[in-house]
Structure formats: C-alpha cells, structure tokens
Amino acid sequence: MFGYYFKLGVRSLRRNPALTALMVLTLAIGVAASMSTLTILHMMSGNPIPHKSEQLFVPVIDNGQLEGYNPGSKPPSQSTYMDAMNMLKAKVGERRTAMYGVGLSIEPERHDLGAFNTQGLAPTHDFFAMFEVPFRFGQPWGELEDKAGADVVVLSAGLSERLFGSANPVGKMVRMNGFMYKVVGVAEHWKPLPRYYHVIAGNGQYGNEEDYFIPLSSAIRHEYDHNGSMSCNKRVEKPGFQGRLESECTWLQFWFETTSSAQRNDVKNYLDSYVSEQRRLGRMKRNVPPELYNVMEWLDYQKVTGNDSRLRVWLALGFLALCLVNTIGLLLAKFSVRASEVGVRRALGASRREIFNQFLIESGVVGLAGGVLGLLLAFGALALIAMSGDSMKHLAHMDLPMLAFTFVLSVTAAVLAGLLPTWRACQVTPALQLKSQ
Q1: Same domain as 81, residue 163
Q2: Is residue 53 included in any domain, yes or no?
Q3: Which of 65, 368, 387, 424 is in the most buried spot, having the most CB atoms within 10 Å?
Q4: What is the mean pLDDT of residues 156-160?
C-alpha cells in the first residue's frame, strides 16, 4: 500500500500546483537555512582525528608572575622555549613535538617565477607521525637532522607543484630567506578541519594548508621570527633572539602522544613533577597545577567553536520551526478541501488508519520535494558563504552525512507538520459529507 499511497501523493502535487509550490518552497527555505548553518557548525566542531584524539595531549603550564595575578585566570596556551626543550628531552610518552609558525620568502630558480612569501611550520620530526601527515614523495627528516639543525624541508603538494611541476623534487634545493634548503619530502594535500595541531597561528583555525615544514632547530638557528601569537608576562631581560629563548614568553605549541589513553596519567604525573622542580628553581610562582588536554578538550578550551556559531544554528532552527508552522497551515488548507473525497472513501469502507497513512505519506512526498529544493538552496547558500573569506571556503561544503541528514530532516519535518492536518482529515464524518453532496 505504501507504493500506491506514494503515487497518490505524487499525483496530488499536481492537483493544486500553486499551493503545493508554496508548501515546497516554504519547507525548502527553512531546510536550506538550517542545513547551511548546521553544516558550518558540523565542520567546525568535528573530531579532526577521531581514532587518535584521546592519545594526543597538549600541556598547559602557568609560568606567570605573582604581580597582577588574579586566581582562576586562564594560563597561557603555549609554552616557553625552555619548557618545550625540557619536555622534548624528558622522553615521556610515545612521541613529542614542539613547533611554531614561520613565514619565509622563497626565491625560485625558475625565471618565470618571482620571489613570493609563504607560511609554514617549524616542528620536530615526530610531528609527521603524530598527526599522520600523508606523503606524496620522500619522507620526513629524522632525529639526526633535528639535532644538527639541518636545512631540510618538506614541501606541501601545492608548493611543490608551483616550484617543480609534477616531477619528484626530492633531493633538489630551494632558497628560503636566503638559505638553501634540501627537499626531503613532499606532503600530500593535508588540511584537517579545524587546524587543531596549531590553532594559535597566523593561518588561523580554518586557514590554508602549510606551504612547508622545516626543522624547529633550523628555524631557531636562523633566528626566524614566529608567525602567530606570543605572550610575555615578564620583561625580556636580554636583547635579540637569544633573549626570547631565555625569557618567560610563551610562543611554542607542544604535544605529547601516548600509546593509549590510559597513559594520560603518566604524562600528567611527569608534568606535576616538572612544575614542582621548576618551582624549586624559582619559576612557576603562581603554584597553579599543570593541565593536560586531549584533542577535543583542547578545541573546547580554545573555544574553536564559539557560542556565536551555536546561536546562529539555534536561530536557523527557529526559522525552520516558523516555516513548519506555515506548512501546517497550508496542509490544513490543502486537506480541508478534500473532505468530500475522504467522506466517500470512508463510506466505501476505508478505515481512519488508511486515510491517516495516505495523507501522512502525501505529507512525506511534500517533504521529499522540499528536501531536494532545500538541498539545492543549501548548496547555493554554502557557495555564497565560501566567497566571504579564505577560512570559510574550507568549511562551507557538505559531506555525505550532512547530505543524508538534509533529506531526513526535510521528510521528518514535513511528516511532523502533516500530523495535525492528517488527524483533522481523519475526523471527517462520512454521513455529513455524503448528505452535503
């Protein structure tokens, strides 16, 4: 009977095209508005590395001074160079990495390309395995290159194609900020959303992929300035880059990786011991216990998905509810003019349940049509959102789960909207309708 009622529902769409078009359009606009905002929130708040998010941890250590301290204030989100180097040497966990963003000028050997500025990252070698960076050519540098501060580079696929075309550039040289770097690998296109591994950076939380990766020790040796934020709670006593390295300024991001989430306590115990030791040396005067955050906790701590995004979603869902109220009114009008039809069917033996199923399936057909149109409108809305900025173009696209959810939402909304009109249609008294004919 479902197939028969579905055909009846499709035919009824043509019975009153103006009213049907108005219902479908009303539902489609509500679905498009809600789905476009839900898609943005879904991309912003998704788990960027779900199979490993509970094995990657960010330490947060409060190294601030007592002067002007307000208990309960948020500690710095990054690490000092001193703390980062100490944690790297501690050999705690499976892997460790420290990093900071750099912006360098590249001077291509190709005569048709002039010098141009780029944005990249200066991590230690464990970075690539920790965050599962895919490779097109070559491989990451190793521990020996980290210790030597070697001038080696892993290019992004985009930068490699710009400099060398489709050829394998491993072993070739690239001039960066006046120094020659040897290409050891080319990373495949890699752009996790959000950019969880380094949310405090010039590229932003949803920015473009890194143009390149160079060893942290090489960036330090060349005294490359950082591309991102830096917090200094105490005056830097020594001038120049060395003064920054010895200061209490926080400007490096640090990550631990464990073999399982159960090893989290081991890392936390190490941090407690480390902070206690540093306190005995005259640092960490605020006596604030260190914290450890896994990937999703870290994104929440950094408020990557802000309250304003959630508010927009609630407003969009409220608009969808308003569209449903209008759809209910239109369905009531559509079903009320068919009272005589219902009366005849009831007189011929149709039960209220059969009438209810027929009209509810008809509402579902309206929802399916509204879903198709709403999906097209949602794609259009996302295309307009993508044009608003570089960060939004990486977020404004619909994946398969959201695509399926659009149809489910549309049909479910239409069925819910059709419950009252369908129930009213079932209450028709056959005798009264037959008498009025």
Answers
A1: yes
A2: no
A3: 368
A4: 94
